[in-house]
Input
Amino acid sequence: MIEAILVEGLIYAVLALGVFISFRVLDFPDLTAEGAFPLGAAAAAALIGAGAHPALAVLAAFAAAALAGAATGAIYAAFKVPSLLAGIVIMTGLWSVNLRVLGGRANLPLIANNPIMDAAYATLPALPEWSAALFFALVVALVLALLVWFFSTEAGIAMGALGDNEAVVIAAGANPVSLRTAGVALSGGLCGLSGALAASYQGFADVNFGSGVVAAGLASVMVGELMLKSNRIGLQIVRVVLGSIMFRGLMFAGRSYGYLIGMTPNDLRFVTALLVIGAIALGRVRKKRRISSPAAALAGAAQGGAA
Amino acid sequence: MIALESLSVLFNPGTPDERAAIKDLSISVPRGQWVSLIGSNGAGKTTLFNAIAGSVSPAAGRVIIDGLDRSRDAEYLRARFVGRVRQDPGGGTAPDMTVMDNLALASRKGARRLLPAKPRALKLLLKERLAELGMGLEERCDENVSRLSGGQRQALALLMAAFTKPAVLLLDEHTAALDPRNADIVMELTRRFVRGYGLTAMMVTHDMRRAAAEGDRLIMMHEGQIVADLSGQEKKGLSVEGLVRLFKEVRGHEYAEDRDLLS
Ligand SMILES: Nc1ncnc2c1ncn2[C@@H]1O[C@H](COP(=O)(O)OP(=O)(O)OP(=O)(O)O)[C@@H](O)[C@H]1O
Ligand SMILES: [Mg+2]
Output
């Protein structure tokens, strides 16, 4: 049971990282993920079905979904529409694209040939139940390492500042439009990568894979934020993974024991929605407390006074 | 060196709300000169800065920075030559990033590379610059800027705008939101940066005392035009009373009764 939660948590952590980058880092609320996640799943499944190397299939899933993200960013920049609207347009269009990628079917099975899961189950032959968890932990560790490195570079720091105060990025002479578009592309790419892994794990890609993933990703991000407070981007990124595992644990508990309180798996979306609202509310309360904290104000004044 | 040639800025052109905020304005500020800019509310001072920085595009005229016409360049491209501090202490810094990240970001103008943003040598240098502010911020590098006081944030914003030695530094009422003590501190830092780095600077202020005391040259704007331009001995000998008289000449007694004039 724990292994299954870990595997799911790790696979969807990559999605949550994508959501984290758009919603938190860029302050760019976006629904592209609802199309990018199944696009990644469809692209990987189609390529693997066609005999492509699994690594190539996964990279292609990332690239295709990144392109979708870039399209959202470009629409936002070109027409000055709200980011949510740009994302909805891309998500809607992607539904048709995804069906084409799946060869006109709504569902593409990977049962006969599933090299990613073959590799996952072969990682730790001594402990077969934990093998997949270790495999996906390694994959996520690689993604984390790359992201932590990226957010320590000039481009990464500027991207972080973009969601905080765009004027500072402009003042540094950096092009905010290309930086934001690159960020939305990175976010989309991660969603696509997550979709590719999820398709392998489930054994099929489905055109409706994406429904509800943004709220689930957001809930994971927020659960993580409740668990750990930090202003360091490295910790914030790790925290997304912890939040995702926690969130999948909650969902698992709901699926397994929800019947005790008359809940069915169909009710989990409602729980997710409640979780997002609850986390937003809690975040507000905390923020208010921080701002109105007289101790903090006094500390600031004392520091100024020392000057 | 910065020169504006017959600059005009129109808001809502071609509509009944059309408004000329800058009217055929020309001025040349030689390298290293510090200009104080005064004028009543709505005179067009902020709009003038916006036109120089590229955040509004002029209807006519040219903006020449260090000899090159930058009128067509986007704001982010001009930022390589134009440093700016606004009135709002929050405006010039990223609040939810650390002091060090803010400085590292501002330490290099231009396209972002995939290279480490904070190499050790840069960090040491930035800490030194922070220490020079005399506010103890070098000990708070890893704290978020949102935890600094208004005066500290504005000092940081000034440092971020000035320490890359831009061709022109624009200061738009940058001490107006601060209490008198912090305003004095930030003004002292301004003096140190502008003179120490030999910057070309334009400073908007509503404080007649500062306008008379600071800078090499004083320009008064009214309804989008320059109505007085004093430098050299004329500027040096200027008193607050002299300024008030000048204001009266320009626009009658109206402005002389503005409260901020006497503050
Ligand atoms: N975005 C805008 N749209 C329309 N009109 C504007 C806009 N910005 C400024 N104006 C107008 O242009 C004129 C000049 O405004 P500006 O902000 O430059 O004045 P200012 O000299 O900076 O005044 P203050 O001392 O109050 O800051 C004003 O009449 C103002 O109403
Ligand atoms: Mg103004």
The longest strand of chain B covers residues 19-29. The beta strands of chain B are 2-11, 19-29, 34-39, 60-65, 68-69, 82-85, 168-172, 201-204, 217-222, 225-231. The CA atoms of residues 99 and 141 of chain B lie 5 Å apart.
